[in-house]
UniProtKB/TrEMBL annotation:
Protein name according to UniProt: Glutamine synthetase
Catalytic reaction list: L-glutamate + NH4(+) + ATP = L-glutamine + ADP + phosphate + H(+)
Cofactor(s) needed for function: Mg(2+); Mn(2+)
A single MF term (Gene Ontology): ATP binding
Amino acid sequence: LRSVVKSVFLLFRCFIVIKMATSASAQLSKVVKRQYMELPQGDNVQAMYIWIDGTGEGLRCKTRTLDSEPKSIEDLPEWNFDGSSTYQSEGSNSDMYLIPSAMFRDPFRKDPNKLVLCEVLKYNRKTAETNHRHTCKKIMEMIDHQIPWFGMEQEYTILGTDGHPFGWPSNGFPGPQGPYYCGVGADKAYGRDIVEAHYKACLYAGVKICGTNAEVMPAQWEFQIGPCEGISMGDHLWVARFILHRVCEDFGVVASFDPKPITGNWNGAGCHTNFSTKEMREDGGLKCIEECIDKLGKRHNYHIRAYDPKGGLDNARRLTGHHETSNIHEFSAGVANRGASIRIPRTVGQEKKGYFEDRRPSANCDPYAVTEALIRTCFLDEEGDEPVDY
Ligand SMILES: Nc1ncnc2c1ncn2[C@@H]1O[C@H](COP(=O)(O)OP(=O)(O)OP(=O)(O)O)[C@@H](O)[C@H]1O
Ligand SMILES: *[C@@H]1O[C@H](CO)[C@@H](O)[C@H](O)[C@H]1NC(C)=O
């Protein structure tokens, strides 16, 4: 009898743990929901407007009905929201404008419905503090003849709603890092359903996702976006992040972009950024790459400040010089060196053309700020701690 009581108790405990780690709305019947999602909607189109809130990393969204399918961004109306509820303005003059900037297919409500990424303007139509797209676009246009390409590797960690990494023992730790990177098997890959769902949803939406893999820490994953030209790098990465949050919501768990979600001997999360221009991709482009790296070396602090939403404070927890990172206080560059700030891929070193990888951006970076900073330093020859006003 004792053992029966014990196993009933264990089962019950297991149940409690699962209940605690996933959200209540995830328990609602998805089969019942499907009945409604399949209803015809006439000529109406649901457009979900998405924007970055006042934290510079949080995303917000709301939906409106359009009476016909928008074919391009010009067909989408401006909208507004209450900025005092998104850390974006004080109570008076709290109306903020949403300016449609990029449109994708909606993988949740499906065609003809849309996801609409927006820029945020204040009541006086000046750009909101965390709207980094506005200047990024301006800077990209200044050098568009160079045809800049970016690729970004977004690392993230899946957490339960209790903030504990998904699938980790409720009091304790999984086995040390080693078997998890690109791992397969129930004891190595924690939460693959989310990764698979996110990948398909991005492809459906038209987000330029180019790969995914399990990362070094269990429950940590990566997806790659690119190559994207100019401003579209930020657009595609932000929408990929939105889709990830939304997929995680369906499963009742949370995606964290914190650069060091677990302290101690566990890898942090970054957003390595590949960068090239036409000149770098042509024969002998390595020379241009080396010139860029020289300029970047002279402006390390400016970049560190641009590479996370807290001016470098978030990244300070991650860039320790350990766990495949560089030290936040030192700039370094090297061929195939994963411990450097900037890495030149081995093939690029051999072929003497291609691209380089900036390994400093934090997982919660704003890709508009990162790509803008790279262009300012490498191609507008800016120096010093402040960006130039053009
Ligand atoms: N900004 C960019 N500019 C140019 N090429 C890019 C950029 N971003 C990504 N790429 C592409 O990424 C590819 C590198 O991906 P791949 O997985 O082949 O790397 P790899 O050569 O295996 O790297 P490694 O040798 O370090 O393992 C390049 O072939 C290149 O076309
Ligand atoms: C960046 O380059 C690396 C090789 O240096 C490659 O493995 C990775 O897939 C590229 N990522 C993106 C997003 O382009």
